[in-house]
Design a protein that fits this description.
α5 runs antiparallel to α6. β2 and β3 form a beta hairpin. The model has no long low-confidence stretch (mean pLDDT about 90). The chain has a five-stranded antiparallel sheet, sandwiched between helices. The N and C termini lie far apart (about 60 Å). It contains eleven helices and five strands. It is elongated, with a radius of gyration of 23 Å. By secondary structure, the protein is an alpha+beta fold. The longest helix has 27 residues, at about 80-105.
Length: about 260
């Protein structure tokens, strides 16, 4: 009879509370304190990322990494807060972002702006809403407002993660279309520091350098992209364009996308 493998332990995810002084590591005897609620999510490596909840019960601010053992020893589970507060408000935010996205896709840009801002009033670092608002301004060709959002995105660490890759690619493409090449390059460079194995990102950097007139640097970056994925269609087409130019031909430029 074969021994069955033990069931996989379910990762921790939920709301927990602790003494505010313990959370900040500044306990002082004789001082009254308050409870702090945090959202905790266990990662694949067993560490737990915690983030304090705002007054609207939304995870916000700095993320801290602790061990599972410390979470279970020093924090109390708060399932009712998770089920009755956090989950409903997060669902409502995602639904509002989806509504805003649909308005933007239909070019109802002022309505989209209104809905994105509704989300950001509750969660000022909501990644999808921030990107959406920036894309709305870019599509309205409002460079000043788009630049304000761009500066904000550069400060949100969670924006530069694999799950948001398509968002920052879209944002960079729209910046290039408006001639915001320096901003786009800063943006892609920040993303590249966090993910050096994405051929699409390298391709976008190559396109930005090309638009800036830096053809040699553009080709070097494109070569890196094709080294990662030799069958990358957009990269192959762009390299074919470079090769045609080198032969003295005048091929049409590849599309900005």
């Amino acid at each position: 009879m074969e021994n069955s493998a033990p069931p996989r332990r379910k990762p921790v995810k939920g709301v927990f509370s602790t003494d505010a002084q313990d959370f900040h590591g500044k306990r002082r005897l004789g001082h009254l304190t308050q409870r702090v609620f945090v959202h905790a999510v266990e990662q694949d490596d067993g560490r737990v990322v915690i983030q304090r909840l705002s007054r609207n019960f939304i995870p916000s601010g700095a993320r801290h990494v602790i061990t599972r053992e410390r979470l279970l020893a020093d924090y109390l589970p708060e399932p009712s807060i998770y089920i009755n507060k956090l989950v409903p408000v997060m669902r409502r935010l995602e639904e509002t972002v989806a509504t805003a996205d649909r308005h933007r896709e239909r070019q109802e840009l002022f309505t989209a702006e209104f809905e994105y801002k509704n989300v950001l009033r509750l969660d000022e670092e909501h990644v999808k809403a921030t990107f959406g608002l920036g894309l709305t301004y870019l599509e309205r060709q409002e460079k000043h407002n788009a630049d304000i959002v761009f500066q904000k995105i550069m400060c949100i660490e969670a924006a530069f993660t694999p799950e948001h890759k398509h968002l920052f690619n879209d944002f960079g493409i729209q910046m290039r279309k408006l001639g915001m090449y320096d901003e786009a390059m800063r943006y892609y460079t920040r993303a590249y520091r966090l993910c050096r194995t994405d051929e699409h990102l390298l391709y976008n950097m190559a396109r930005t350098l090309y638009e800036k007139g830096r053809l040699r640097s553009s080709r070097v970056m494109l070569t890196h992209a094709l080294r990662l994925n030799p069958e990358f269609p957009e990269g192959k087409a762009f390299m074919a364009y470079f090769d045609s130019r080198q032969r003295g031909e005048m091929p049409p430029e590849p599309p900005l996308e």
